[in-house]
Write a structure and sequence with these properties.
76% of the residues lie in helices and 1% in strands. It is mainly α. The protein starts with a helix and ends with a helix.
């Protein structure tokens, strides 16, 4: 692999990691029967709180921990509303996304005294694997959360397919009433996975704000949470398919950066990943309808 290929692949992994983490959270929620469209707001909240805790403690790792815990608490809004009170999860999720956008902008001015973007030499970002003495080809330039992300994809796939709890969760998502009649505590499972999705979005936000860069900017999630929702729609309940959908977005973003360096306008480069994601959703939808038509015949 030459230098261009290695750096491009590293850029793909950097762009993909936050989206994959958020998408895994959306996948778990979806499998349980709660469609989680709050990934955008949770990712943004995770990024902001990770930066705040890193700023207050002087430690990137405590920033990650703080971001995860804060996002778990934030995801409790969806958990309580949709599971306990049976509110429409889509309506709740839209409200959470809007709340995160406004709340992070407001708190940014209260905590850091600035608007727009906050960065500082005193803000601690995550070290790379090379900094930790693990100079693995391609991965050496990544934060430790990137290989953790790949490991989590495998872990979630095995958990859903090979463990009793994972199989029960799938059963709850498919036939909640039947599962409840068999004595399964449907609400407990759903609360658990929605909060777990919050933890994964907290990790995603920490990777975005402290791993990919070392700063916080208003609205810096920039649609990545929505891309994660699309990845869940494309991949269904299969983590490896979700990973492939996210890699498509990451490759498009990395390629857009290279085109920008070659003279393509920034706006076109920024739009490229989302255009490709939208096209993938359209193609997948058309393929699904065609398959249904063939099966009906």
């Amino acid at each position: 692999m030459n230098i261009f290929e290695a750096t491009f692949f590293a850029a793909v992994l950097t762009a993909t990691a936050p989206v994959v983490l958020a998408a895994l959270g959306g996948l778990l929620s979806s499998v349980s029967g709660v469609f989680n469209m709050a990934l955008e707001g949770q990712l943004l909240w995770g990024a902001f709180t990770a930066v705040v805790f890193s700023y207050l403690t002087g430690s990137a790792w405590l920033g990650v921990l703080g971001g995860v815990l804060a996002t778990v608490l934030y995801s409790a809004i969806l958990s309580v509303s949709a599971v306990t009170f049976r509110a429409d999860p889509v309506v709740v999720a839209v409200g959470m996304n809007l709340l995160a956008l406004g709340l992070t902008a407001f708190l940014m001015r209260q905590v850091f005294g600035v608007g727009g973007t906050y960065t500082s030499p005193d803000l601690r970002g995550l070290p790379t694997l090379a900094d930790l003495g693990l100079d693995v080809p391609v991965l050496g330039s990544q934060s430790p959360l990137v290989p953790v992300t790949l490991a989590l994809v495998v872990a979630v796939a095995l958990w859903l397919k090979r463990t009793r709890a994972g199989l029960r969760l799938r059963g709850i998502g498919q036939h909640a009433d039947a599962a409840e009649s068999l004595g399964l505590r449907v609400g407990v499972y759903r609360h658990g996975v929605v909060l777990a999705a919050g933890a994964l979005c907290g990790l995603a936000g920490a990777q975005l704000a402290l791993g990919n860069v070392t700063l916080f900017s208003e609205g810096m999630s920039a649609g990545r949470g929505w891309v994660a929702v699309v990845a869940v729609m494309l991949g269904g309940s299969r983590p490896y398919r979700v990973l492939l959908a996210c890699l498509l977005f990451g490759a498009a973003e990395a390629f857009g950066f290279r085109l920008q360096g070659a003279g393509l306008p920034q706006q076109a480069a920024d739009a490229a990943p989302y255009v490709i994601t939208l096209l993938a959703l359209v193609v997948a939808g058309a393929a699904g309808r065609r398959r249904q038509t063939v099966e009906a015949r």
